[in-house]
Amino acid sequence: MDLDSRYIEIEKNVKAVRARIESASQKVNRSSADVTLIAVTKTYPVSDAMILSQLGISNFGENRSSEGAAKAAEIQGTWHFQGQIQSNKIKQVLTWANSIHSVDDLRHISLIKKALPDDKNISIFLQVALDGQLHRGGVSEEILPLLAEEVLSSDGLMLEGLMAVAPLDHDPHRAFSELARIHSVFSQQFPMATNLSAGMSNDFEVAIEYGATHLRIGSSILGVRTSPL
Ligand SMILES: *Cc1c(COP(=O)(O)O)cnc(C)c1O
């Protein structure tokens, strides 16, 4: 596909997603201005991220450090790392990412703290596992305060809030209402942790209903990925 037709296709998808965010927000009396759309560009070329940037998208999500580094070098914006993070990649992630959505390990927090340059800040979302589905990443509710304390005691690490992925085989209403309850309890103890990263292509309208502030949307904008990431 040439770049002009790709531009037209992505523009159409972005408009449609923005309209759905708007109407889902209105439905629950929220302002769509409080909902950040993160365009997940993983597996797609830097030229797609460039088109998104031209369309006014300023938040981008990636799962692989080398891929994120290459795109972030070309495209200005806020870059979010959102996948399972490997210890040996943390240092590289910190060179390009502004935000890490999937922190679920005390040792990773220490490594981030150690590797973070003095003049840099990094936003941290703690990943919570819903319905005990630990294999998709995340910790159980009871562990969150321990991780949060570690983030708060580390210079340059900012505790943004919580992140979750809804289990594939469950009703997203059930998953996100559980997440909303966990976030409400958590933010009584950690009032700075106001943000909630939840909602992907298949369930972002439900996530908005339950208070999501950061949507991570890939395939609805760029198309279904052929590689399994
Ligand atoms: C790939 C991915 C997304 C985007 O998924 P889509 O279904 O394509 O919108 C969001 N969050 C995480 C953690 C992902 O790995």
From TrEMBL:
<dbReference type="InterPro" id="IPR001608">
    <property type="entry name" value="Ala_racemase_N"/>
</dbReference>
<keyword id="KW-0663">Pyridoxal phosphate</keyword>
<dbReference type="InterPro" id="IPR011078">
    <property type="entry name" value="PyrdxlP_homeostasis"/>
</dbReference>
<dbReference type="GO" id="GO:0030170">
    <property type="term" value="F:pyridoxal phosphate binding"/>
</dbReference>
<protein>
    <submittedName>
        <fullName>Unannotated protein</fullName>
    </submittedName>
</protein>
<dbReference type="InterPro" id="IPR029066">
    <property type="entry name" value="PLP-binding_barrel"/>
</dbReference>
<feature type="domain" description="Alanine racemase N-terminal">
    <location>
        <begin position="14"/>
        <end position="225"/>
    </location>
</feature>
<dbReference type="Pfam" id="PF01168">
    <property type="entry name" value="Ala_racemase_N"/>
</dbReference>
